[in-house]
Specification:
Pfam families: DUF4391. This is DUF4391 domain-containing protein. The chain is of the alpha+beta class and 240 residues long. The chain has two domains: 149 residues, no CATH class; 68 residues, no CATH class. Strands 1, 2, 5, 6, 7, 8 and 9 form a seven-stranded mixed beta sheet that branches. It has a two-stranded antiparallel ribbon with strand order 3-4. β7 and β8 form a beta hairpin. The chain is globular, with a radius of gyration of 18 Å. The two termini are 32 Å apart.
């Protein structure tokens, strides 16, 4: 997975029951047990070769990489949201099913200001489903730009993870603009604030797309498209 160095390899399988904690409702527990076949921790980035990051909002001392086999990839969203809630460290999840499709899940987490033993998830993203066996653009982009050696910002674990998170979000939204490869190859990932600006602008576009889907008139859609264009211009300026 992402050509992570063998020094971080774990390959530990978990009993599914370990994830059906008291945090879950009875309905969530049943859904989890019915749809998850296997959970394995493939890698865990710990130690200080990539520095930990601790401040008032973050406690990033580990990044965990799970592989989860599910009954059908359609259930990955619900299962991913559950795992991201239950596991407090930063987590990357590769979901796959028997049909040979896969998707990755990332979540940006911070500490709860009222109780720093708990986390708040600001955003969870899932990459588009892609074939494990056949070459496709989503698979190729993830393999290239999320490769361990291609992650530019290894200043600390938070920045490392957020670069992967940001790139995954950009790849997932590449249909909106043609210059995404230029951004994926750019130096914006050396700056945490710029990465956060990029993900914020991508969220804006997602919001505008939802507005278009429920817009009633051509005029309304045209106005929303102007907003999308303006946001895309802001994205392009990030790399200037």
């Amino acid at each position: 997975m992402f050509n992570i160095p063998s020094a971080y390899e774990v390959n530990k399988k978990f009993d599914i029951k370990m994830f059906t904690t008291s945090q879950l409702t009875p309905k969530e527990k049943k859904y989890f047990k019915d749809n998850v076949f296997k959970i394995e921790l493939k890698y865990q980035i710990t130690g200080e070769d990539i520095a930990s990051f601790i401040d008032d909002e973050h406690n990033c001392q580990a990044i965990m990489f799970f592989e989860v086999e599910v009954k059908d990839l359609k259930c990955a969203k619900t299962i991913g949201e559950i795992i991201q809630r239950v596991v407090k460290p930063l987590v990357v999840i590769r979901f796959f099913d028997f049909k040979g499709t896969e998707s990755y899940c990332f979540a940006y987490k911070r500490l709860n200001k009222l109780d720093n033993t708990q986390i708040v998830i600001d955003e969870t993203i899932f990459t588009p489903a892609s074939s494990i066996f056949l070459q496709n653009e989503t698979k190729e982009l993830i393999s290239k730009y999320l490769d361990f050696d291609e992650v530019k910002n290894k200043v600390n674990k938070l920045f490392f993870y957020y670069e992967m998170f940001c790139k995954a979000k950009l790849i997932s939204n590449r249909a909106y603009f043609s210059g995404y490869k230029g951004i994926l190859s750019s130096n914006i990932f050396y700056d945490f604030d710029t990465m956060k600006s990029l993900t914020g602008l991508l969220r804006e576009i997602e919001g505008f797309e939802r507005e278009i889907s429920i817009a009633n008139t051509a005029s309304d859609k045209a106005q929303i498209n102007i907003k999308i264009k303006n946001t895309l211009e802001k994205i392009n300026k990030l790399t200037e």
